Amino acid sequence: MLFIGANPYGFEVWKSVFEIASSSVTRSKLIHEWRSPALSDLYGGQLVILIAATVAAAGFSRCRLSLRDVVIFLCFFLIAYDAQRNMPYFVMAMLPIIARLAAQTPMMDRLASQLPPVLSYRRQALILACAIPLLFVARLGLSGYGAKEEQRFFATDAINYMVANGRTARVMHDFNFGGYIAFHHPQVKVFADSRFDLYGDDFVMDFTRTMNGAPGYGDFIEKWRPETIMVPNGSPLGSLLTATGRYQEGFVGQTQTVLLRQQP
Hints:
Elements: H1 2-6, H2 12-22, H3 24-28, H4 42-60, H5 67-82, H6 87-102, H7 106-113, H8 122-140, H9 147-154, H10 156-164, E1 171-172, H11 175-184, H12 201-211, H13 217-224, E2 228-232, H14 236-244, E3 247-252, E4 256-261
Parallel strand pairs: 1-2
Antiparallel strand pairs: 2-4, 3-4
Helix pairs in contact: 4-6, 4-8, 5-6, 6-8, 7-8, 12-13
């Protein structure tokens, strides 16, 4: 409370948290990072690994989970399961608990006894050595990483096509690609990103209806007049825009199609 009082925004910080939590965009799960983690993706992999590590450490440890540990686990598990953007908090909350439990296991006793006595903190060194790989594995998840993961989440083939062909101005794309594009390709003028609270619920819902090809999509397109549009392959909006002749397909990737404006 003291730090909140020192914050120049004061209790507006709390107000912002509740506004975002109660937003219709948050409840509708339109933004990927607000969705529950799937067991087959990166965040789901983190969840499985941390739960398994906690169960294993608790099962072999001479210590027992305290009431505080259980409360911490349940609270941070629930917020991580509700929205995958909260996974880092679950990781930070659970690693100290896992390390404390693992320090009191027979395996750690045997390993610690084999280290030179001069290492007064040998048990702590072992815990650190075990925690670093756990952090690394939790970061990677279970379904792969690198270019394959980026393509699956962010349609990098379509984005790379736009960048390579100089289609970097007035680009309209899914909210969930905005952060990736801004970070990796700052020359692209990002249309919007996952910080929906900056744009307002009305804009987000209008944009979502447009991307679905709902009535009124033409008004939204004419208002913003994008030169390039990324749409899912076979999307209603893509079919509607190409049928009018105002846009044509420039590139068809694994998951996204790039539409190029033909009329000024």
